[in-house]
Write a structure and sequence with these properties.
The complex is a heterodimer of chains A (about 500) and B (about 160).
Chain A lengths: L1 H8 L3 H19 L5 H8 L8 H25 L9 H12 L3 H34 L4 H18 L4 H14 L3 E2 L6 E2 L13 H20 L19 H23 L5 H15 L11 H25 L5 H12 L8 H4 L1 H33 L3 H20 L2 H19 L5 H24 L5 H4 L1 H15 L4 H9 L1
Antiparallel strand pairs in A: 1-2
Helix pairs in contact in A: 2-4, 2-15, 3-4, 3-13, 4-5, 4-6, 4-12, 4-13, 4-15, 5-6, 5-12, 6-10, 6-12, 6-15, 7-8, 7-11, 7-18, 7-20, 8-18, 9-16, 9-17, 10-11, 10-12, 11-12, 16-17
Chain B lengths: L1 H26 L13 H23 L22 H20 L4 H17 L5 H25 L6
The chains are: A mainly alpha (about 500), B mainly alpha (about 160).
């Protein structure tokens, strides 16, 4: 109790204002496709030079929390993932909104974000040190087996033909290969094109696959009218206690999964939301509803992607190790403010640690009303005639893709992947496995190659070490699940 | 259904071409002395897997009489049977390509070009429903959006727009 009291003793009215400001900016930037939390935080660091480290870190951490949640608004109402972390939310959020339950979808997503943020905060407070010690003991084989399992899960995410899902996932993995080889830093598969040396960035790829393909579909559907047939009902936006009881197990499970995945260095919020989405689908009594507006799917994705923030802050606070790109930027901010990150942070700068922890909790709580508040103008936007909304979306996407690197190459990449996404949807090839394969590719390849270098080219650690063995077995089971006899019986009875 | 099959075959052909192109390039990468699989083996394995999956699915699609109902995945939306126009999709893509090419070559400044792009795309989408008010609205929106984006990117985010 004393610990908690001393935590909140670090709060000043000034830092509260910065936390609120950071959360608002994070949510707004996260809701705009093309703008990311990382970009916002990196650009805001120079603005914090005049502040003390406590206020600066309060502001930046609140931006981080807000940006992860902001993406859900556009994901649900326009099927445009504001951030890569909200890709899984589009799968069920948008179909539920199209059924006339936009308010409900937003409410479920925002409440799940709140629970995810609070659960990961408790984990951050209680388990920061012991979990960091476990995470840094993960070997490359453990990571590789984890990505194999995630790839196995991918094929079960979107339903329908498993072979099409596999094709989509492998295509995502393969198209992530051109560019700098992540192990040695030498360009490969670039065909002599200078721009291709950096490969395809995540942001233009995801904007193309989801936003541009959707725009093309809406364009094909006919002239005039509005972009969607959303009923725009904001009823059900505030969840009742019985809703929390109904989704409580899923919220807690997804939050725990997200926090643990966030803890693993280099594994981001998008993978956290994928894994918990796939697990929720496996456990669900109505797996066929996933992808068609399932509340369980929204809960799993949003609780997990918010929980990854707290999880990713654990190695940062306890060991000074960045768990994600944004954490690396935050470490840069700490150094710029004269604070040395690492195991001595707790004893040398407790006020800074407390400001990070408190900011995390307060912004998690602020996100719920903020998202609901932001949702109303967004719903109004989706009522706008297609002739006005589509040009605006296209303009935002083009400028967002350009702002990603300051190069038109990314805009062309976005348009190219937009055509690919449109074609894939027409051919009923799911997009989610492609996106997750694309994200996982560097992690899978780097760890496989590092593992092979350590083992002298032998794959045996995959089945001689307990953790990789269990994960590989699980992957095989997931892949073979549709043909297992008891699954068949369950499907028949369902 | 015939149209769906055409799209499927085009998609599989595209994936097969990507597999052949990237697989061929990966095959030519020299192995490294200290790295058991080097830079090329992982993408090569993926290319083989992608190529095989594309061929199997293409054969399945060709021999199938009608697509299975359970193949409808959750992500893909069902055809609503409305007015579908592939030419308009092509026109939207061409307009976007023209806009991006104009920006990258500096043919016009960002603000007037973006305003014109919003107007042209909006008019294309409005089609027969286009009125004077639509045109004026699009002009106003184009000017406002391009002005807003210029201000936010240059004065708030310190990013230089073309």
């Amino acid at each position: 109790m004393d610990g908690l009291l001393s935590l909140f003793a670090a709060l000043t009215p000034e830092s509260l204002v910065f936390i609120a400001l950071g959360t608002v900016l994070g949510v707004v930037i996260g809701a705009i496709p093309g703008l990311t939390g990382g970009m916002l935080i990196a650009l805001s660091i120079p603005l914090t030079f005049g502040m003390g480290p406590v206020n600066a870190l309060s502001l930046l951490v609140a931006m981080y929390m807000g940006s992860v949640s902001g993406g859900l608004v556009a994901a649900i109402l326009l099927r445009i993932p504001g951030t890569p972390a909200s890709v899984m939310t589009t799968l069920d959020g948008y179909p539920l909104a199209k059924k006339g339950q936009a308010g409900r979808a937003l409410g479920v997503a925002a409440a799940s974000s709140l629970v995810g943020g609070v659960v990961s905060w408790f984990i951050l407070i209680l388990l920061a040190y012991p979990l960091s010690v476990i995470a840094i003991r993960f070997t490359p084989w453990d990571y590789f087996a984890l990505t194999l399992m995630a790839l196995g899960l991918i094929t079960s995410v979107s339903g329908g033909s498993q072979l099409k899902s596999l094709l989509s996932a492998v295509a995502g993995l393969l198209l992530a290969m051109p560019g700098d080889d992540p192990s040695v830093g030498v360009p490969r598969l670039t065909f002599g094109l200078y721009d291709l040396e950096n490969g395809f960035s995540e942001l233009p790829v995801f904007l193309g696959l989801f936003a541009i393909s959707q725009v093309l579909k809406e364009t094909e559907r006919g002239q005039g009218g509005t972009i969607t047939q959303l009923a725009h009902q904001m009823r059900g936006v505030w969840l009742l206690p019985r809703d929390y009881l109904r989704h409580g197990g899923n919220m807690i499970r997804s939050s725990l999964l997200g926090a643990f995945i966030g803890l693993l260095p280099g594994v981001g919020a998008n993978i956290g939301s994928l894994v918990s989405y796939a697990v929720a689908r496996r456990i669900s009594r109505a797996p066929s509803e996933f992808g068609r507006g399932s509340e369980e799917g929204i809960v799993a994705s949003e609780a997990a992607n918010n929980a990854t923030v707290g999880g990713a802050l654990i190695p940062l606070v306890a060991m000074g190790i960045p768990g994600s790109v944004i954490d690396a930027i935050l470490i840069g901010a700490l150094i710029l403010h004269g604070v040395t990150p690492g195991p001595m942070l707790f004893s040398n700068s407790p006020d800074v640690v407390y400001s990070i922890l408190v900011s995390c909790l307060i912004s998690a709580v602020l996100i719920y009303p903020l998202v609901i508040f932001l949702a109303r103008p967004m719903v109004w936007l989706s009522r706008t005639p297609k002739a006005f909304l589509i040009p605006a979306i296209l303009l935002f996407c083009i400028v967002g893709a350009y702002a990603n690197s300051g190069k038109f190459y990314d805009v062309w990449v976005m348009l190219g992947f937009g055509i690919l996404g449109y074609l894939m949807e027409k051919a009923r090839i799911p997009l989610a496995p492609f996106t997750i394969g694309f994200v996982l590719a560097p992690l899978a390849e780097t760890n496989l190659r590092t593992g092979l270098m350590i083992s002298g080219g032998s794959l045996s650690p995959l089945w001689t070490n307990p953790l990789p063995m269990v994960l590989v077995l699980l992957s095989v089971l997931i892949l073979l699940a549709p043909w297992l006899p008891w699954r068949g019986r369950r499907a028949q009875s369902g | 259904m015939e149209r769906d099959r055409r799209y499927e075959l085009v998609a599989y052909a595209l994936f097969l071409s990507a597999a052949l192109l990237l697989g061929g390039a990966a095959y030519l990468i020299e192995p490294s002395p200290f790295d058991p699989i080097g830079s090329g083996r992982f993408p090569l394995a993926l290319s083989l897997l992608l190529g095989c999956a594309a061929v199997v699915l293409a054969v399945q699609s060709l021999v199938r009489v009608s697509p299975d109902v359970d193949e409808l995945d959750g992500n893909a939306e069902t055809d609503d049977g409305g007015d579908h126009d592939g030419m308009r999709v092509l026109a939207i893509l061409l307009l976007a390509a023209l806009y991006v090419a104009s920006l990258s070559n500096g043919w016009l400044a960002f603000m007037p070009l973006s305003g014109a792009y919003v107007l042209a795309t909006g008019l294309l989408l409005a089609g027969k429903e286009c009125r004077w008010s639509t045109m004026l609205g699009l002009l106003a929106m184009g000017a406002m959006l391009s002005g807003l984006l210029t201000y936010v990117f240059t004065h708030v985010l310190y990013l230089r727009l073309p």
